[in-house]
Amino acid sequence: MTSSKTNKQNQIPRRFRERIQAAKDNKLKKLDLSNNYSSRDDEKLTEIPTEVWELEQLEVLDLSDNQLKTLPKSIIQLTNLTQLDLSDNQLKTLPKSISQLTNLTQLDLSGNQLTNLPESISQLTNLTQLDLSGNQLTNLPKSISQITNLTRLDLINNQLTNIPEFIYKFANLTELYLSNNQLTNLPESISKFTNLTKLDLISNQLTNLPESISQLTKLTEFYLSNNQLKTIPKSISQLANLTMLDLSGNQLTNLPESISKFTNLTKLDLISNQLTNLPESISQLTNLTELYLGENKLTNLPEPITQLTNLTELNLCVNKLTTLPESISQITNLTRLCLSYNQSTKLPESITKLTNLTELDLSGNKLTTLPESISQITNLTRLCLSYNQLKALPESISQLTNLTRLYLSYNQLKSLPKSISQLTNLTRLYLGVNKLTNLPESISQLTNLTRLYLGDNKLTNLPESISQLTNLTGLGLSNNKLTTLPESISQLTNLTELDLSNNKLTTLPESISQLTNLIWLNLSNKKLTTLPKSITKLTNLTGLGLSGNKLTTLPESISQLTNLTGLGLSNNTLTTLPESISQLTNLTGLALSGNHLETPPIEIAEKGIEAIREYFQQIKAEGIDYLYEAKLLIIGEGGAGKTTLANKIQNSDYQLKDEDTTKGIEVHQWNFQTANQHKFQMNIWDFGGQEIYHTTHQFFLTKRSLYILVADIRKEDTDFDYWLNVVELLSDNSPLLIIKNEKQERKWEINQRALQGQFSNIKEILATNLATNRGLKEIRTEIQHYISNLPHIGTALPKTWKKVREVLETDSRNYISLEEYLSICEKNSFKKREHKLQLSGYLHDLGVCLHFQDDPLLNKTVILKPEWGTAAVYKALDNPQVYDNFGKFTKDDLTNIWHEDKYANMHDELLQLMIKFKLCYKIPGTSQTYIAPQLLTEAQPEYDWDENNNLILRYTYEFMPKGIITQFIVAMHKEIEKQKYVWKSGVILKKNRARAEVIEYYGKREIKIRISGQQKRDLMTIVTHELDKIHSSYNNRLKYDKLIPCNCKDCKENSQNPHFYKFDDLQRRINNGIFKTQCELYYNEVDVLSLINDVIERETSSSFLQPKDSKNPITNHYYGSVEYNSNDVIGSQTIAEKIVNDQSRKIENKDGNIVGNIFGDESNIKDKVTANSPQQKIEEPKKFGFLDFVTWMQNGQILFILTSSIIGILLLIIYPQLYPNGLPKWVKPIQDIIPVPQTENESNSSK
User: Fold this and answer.
1) 1069 occurs within a structural domain
2) Domain ranges, residue 1089
3) Is there a single domain that holds both residue 666 and residue 765?
4) Are 1018 and 991 contacting, i.e. CB atoms less than 8 angstroms apart?
5) Of the N and C termini of the chain, which has fewer Cβ atoms inside 10 Å?
6) Tens-digit pLDDT profile for residues 459-479
7) For residue 740, what are the CA distances in angstroms to 724, 726, 775, 780, 965?
8) pLDDT at 697 over 70
9) Closest residue by Cα to residue 633 from 775, 766, 734, 740
10) What is the pLDDT of residue 1088?
11) What digits encode the pLDDT tens for the residues 556-570?
12) HSE value, Cβ hemisphere, 13 Å, CA-based, for 525
């Protein structure tokens, strides 16, 4: 027993043991066992140390952010506890005995998995604060009403659909937080909370407010954002003590005149409604200091608004304002004014009279000139003029001498006035995406500049005087026409980030090695054939972009860059990596896509730098052997003769016979001597050609293989278009032979030149009569030639790998346990577990065996004969009973189907294999019933559909592989409406109050999405994200267009048949500064940004003039998180504006660091992304995670930023839905490396 106790103590992290001992020795009343600063699971408590129960003097106990699953009854020994924090654990229930902690005044249970509370909680009658947020509560126990001393109750992020009547007995409540539930209405009895000062109802489904709300006369802060309110009751005006009212993100079309009675209001947020005008009476809110009206439909402002003379912040972004009343000049206290994304063609003179302005945002308008009078706003420190049509700047701009940041990107500037040199306080100047051909020498006088962005211009050279900008830390010069750099650039010794990508530089000055403070250097998409020696002297580099060059090798000296954390090498012509790359011990991100690596094998390299290190370690320790093995995949229609050909390849004397059609996949071996006398093993995969098997092709049609397409000439039924396209899509252009099986000597000519013109991987078209062996010898010869010349043949592998491979190959069993596999490796000189798993992963990628290391069930088994697993899968799909039942089956059915001994005790694993291949899903609410959607009925069921105000999106494909809709149905099965509305080619989804109709039209190569109901864009985001994720699984080679519907007035009236625009075309327009397009059906002018924003979700938030953070945590709803994927590089505030900032655009992160794609210019925005609205606070950090970083790396990009940390990553609109229980554990560590990206127009100092 003592030994067991000692072992448990040793499992407790040392710091916790020390704290417990200190509390015991010093009789401390407070004990902190929280783990809120570490993401490592092994540093978290899984149970409470028993020594804690001896500390009876404790009054405060913090156990937050651990992995506690139960709360032991022993806690009742801590009878003196007044504060107990159990937040962010994994508690699913509470013990009834918790009721004995009667001295508790504060109890925090947030962030657990509680679905209910024990009735006994009611005995905690001294509680004043109870936090139950972030659980899964659908109701509360009635007895909770006995805790009458509660002053604060937090129920955020649960699943409450109503407020139970009994909680109105909490007469002492002053703060009630109910955001992010599923409330659809408030009862009249809410009026009983007469002491409430703060009420949070954010992000519910409220459509109206009861009149009785007016009785909450003590309310000072009322939060109603992100509901579905169309009106507010007049009686709300009786809430005369309100100082903060948040109605953003609703559907208000007007405000009642009675709003004028909120005379104590200091903050009013009406962002993202549908207001077309404001009542005159708003002028009576004379205490207002902050007014947020962005993202409405205002065309003008009432003159009386100018009586709000205490306003310091006014947000009018994203409306339809063409001008402002002259009297706005009377709001003389304004310091921050946002007018971005309106329709102003000139700057109103009245604005120039607002001389206290420090921040002015006019981006995204139609300004072609600035008045000379802008010089009067002399207190300006930030001026945002990006996304206009400015062709020149007035000389008078030089009088804005307090400016520290000036944003002029995305205009049409051809030159800068010499007088700009007088803006000597400028620290950041953004001139990207203009038409500058040169810089004035006078720019050298801006000696306080720390950030200068000149990307996407037409610069052919830099002035020598640029060397005088010695305070520069970031210089962006991407996408220009520079052929040389001045030697003097070496004097910019404070540079930490330098982007020279996409220029015409073939060499770099040797003096660049003097820029020893460089941390990020982008040399992507140049014409470098070798890595300049000077680069390896920049030993402080943490990020180096070399993608898109012509590098054939890397020097061993790369190892000198010991601080590198990210290295971009995509799209070069590398075939080998130097062993010295293993010495870059800090390297965590490595982009290698688009090369033809042989050493290490691409399957290893794709797994990242750790796998590469392990590969070289094993080579060094065990020596080298070489791989002479490859796959031959035989495909074609069912009955074409594939199996006969497979047998004839192995044995030309094989006698033809009537053979059953191949069920799934059969695997054979053929050994032969190569021309170089190497023993070669060819693994022949014979694929069943039936329709039902097509959905799994993506799992088995591998790269670096030889393909044979067998065409039955007698039937003439070969779908060349499908087979050739699917091989091209999935095999990375592997070589393919077409074999014409001329049964009964029937001839058929195939247009070889035309096919090879379309599909360059077709090497030969050969004919045979397998009955007579005519042409067979030539076929065998060509197979040997092409397969032995595959790029990976002769790859160097550690000797131990080949030994293990040979042992597994001679094992006659279909599968072995992971333990057996590890033991085999151990007997063949493997020492480290990670090396053993690396080999199983490599063999899995080659198709030699199957080992799904990321699956909790399947990772325990190594399937030695893949055909055994696939045969079992297809045995289930081919079963007549399953077929007749339209794909529905139970575990009992599988017991009958897999009754043979070879499947004994493996039913769970085989079922999981089907799920892994997205061939079936478990019907929610059942214990063991499953659906294989490819066997569903083709008949579309009857269902009602509201066609009013639908969101519509279409995907059209150049080639559409089979199985996309099947995979989508499996991925989204939990959202299928009533688990009823699903058929072979489509599905109806329901989430909250929105419905999605997703239908595949295979003959048209199209998927059409319609969304109806409320919160439509939320659901559209989820649907498109899932489809785009499926698309990316096809090696990012799938070619498709995302079509966005026109939103002009006529198309909206004909919402089911609007004109459609290609998403990529809209993107290109924005990138070229064209923000208008024309409806081709009705010839109406249409705003490009609004086209995208109407369909793709963005979070309601504000610009740099958004409400400042208050002490109340619920105001954090203003600071939405944003997902970034491979194609979404830190742009502006909405998705549309973010598209403008494509991957070559350099902007800033929260620390003001230039962000760019230092891995090349492969901007091809296909993925659905979401973002904050144009009113997003400019400096607000954007969160993104490891997966996004890796994708950037693989697409030829990296962040051009300083190393800093962020706390967690969510998903732009959808992370919370994708990861409801938190992010995967392995995501977190990358946040120690990758800083938070941010927009060009970033931060304000008030944050």
Assistant:
1) yes
2) 1047-1096
3) yes
4) yes
5) N
6) 999 998 999 999 999 999 999
7) 14, 19, 10, 14, 32
8) no
9) 734
10) 84
11) 999 999 999 999 999
12) 24
